[in-house]
Amino acid sequence: MNFEIWGLSGSLHTEREDQMAHAEQRLWYWIAQFDGACNRFRSDSEISRLNASPTGTYAISETFELALAGALRAGRATDGLCDPTVLPALLALGYDRDYGELLRRDQNNGHDPVKPLGLGAICLDRDAHTVSLAPDCQLDLGASAKALTVDFVANEIGSTGGVVVEIGGDVAARGKSAEGPWAIGISDTLTTNGREPRVSVDRGGIATSSLTTRTWRIGDRVANHIIDPRTGSFAKGIYSTATVSAESCLMANAFSTAALLWGEDAGYYIGQAGWSARLVRADGTAEFVGGWPRDGERS
Q1: Per-residue pLDDT tens for 100-116?
Q2: Of 61, 26, 29, which Cα lies nearest the Cα of 45?
Q3: Alpha-carbon span 79 to 105, nearest angstrom
């Protein structure tokens, strides 16, 4: 099954045909849940209401709590490089509307970089189901929410048989297909030609982050959606694309994003965490971390 959501393509496959109806139902359930909680481009979403008046303590839904807890977990795992408080930085770069609308705008005006406030600006109380934000703190949970969506669907359907779920390059797999492990194509661009390197996976998550696939112009500059919390501006690392395999899509997404900011140290941090990766430099040179198979091989 192929589908589109949030301006991204997605796919859902199950080991057996009799799993698919339930898998589709859970897919759209979790998409609706995270969309209503975390889509900052919806004026009626929970995150939009929170960002409109961020100072204070607010009761939050179970879904928003799961998304925020996941974002904080990703942030701690990457020493704060995956930062859910980046919204003011994104707005300063002109990313104030859906990406499709952003591209259609004739001129995007950027402002001086705004450094995110960091994880310490968020106080999540899992017992009281509330969140308190520091003054001027605004949240963007899009990346972690997308990864959690595929993780949650895979976890639920994986108990009945093999499943693989993908949204915009974020993949979660549990179990095998009818023919064996799932074959996942890895692309450095938004387009594919069928000749991309492939890896085999039967558990965990794979995620790809890129400096070249979600970009827009600000004057004579080309901005991207990866914010460096250390500067408040968009990423300008040595790697143009990073693909990471980890225990979950949430962690794979976090480390693939952070890899674009770690630069030469990316391989060290990914390896120390126990994950594997394929890192591509701007000239197209691919480097491999951990057990990731060399292009042309299968894991």
Answers
A1: 777 777 666 667 889 99
A2: 61
A3: 35
Task: Dig out the tokens for 130 from the structure.
Answer: 């509330």
Q: What residue type is 3 in one-letter code? A: F
pTM given for the model: 0.92
Where exactly are the structural domains of the chain? 2-289
* CATH of segment(s) 2-289: 3.10.520.10
Q: Which helix (H) or strand (E) is 287 found in, with range?
A: strand 286-289
Instruction: List C-alpha distances in Å: 138 to 3, 53, 160, 232, 246.
Output: 30, 9, 39, 14, 28
Helix (H) or strand (E) holding 244, with range, is: strand 239-246
Q: How confident is the model at residue 94 (pLDDT cuts 50, 70, 90)?
A: confident
* DSSP run (H or E) holding 70: helix 62-77
3-state SS, residue 127: coil
DSSP label at residue 234: B
- Asked if 160 contacts 108 with a C-beta cutoff of 8 angstroms, the reply is no
Sign of CA dihedral 261, 186, 142, 214: positive
Q: Assign 125 to helix, strand or coil.
A: strand
CA atoms of 92 and 77, how far apart (whole Å): 26
Contact 26/19 with Cβ under 8 angstroms? no
- Cα–Cα distance for residue pair 48/197, rounded to 1 Å: 39
DSSP 10-66: EEEEESSGGGHHHHHHHHHHHHHHHHHHH-TT-TTSHHHHHHHS-BEEEE--HHHHH
Distant-in-sequence, close-in-space partners of 120: CB < 8 Å, separation ≥ 6: 134
Instruction: Say how many CA atoms lie within 13 Å of 124 toward its Cβ.
Output: 17
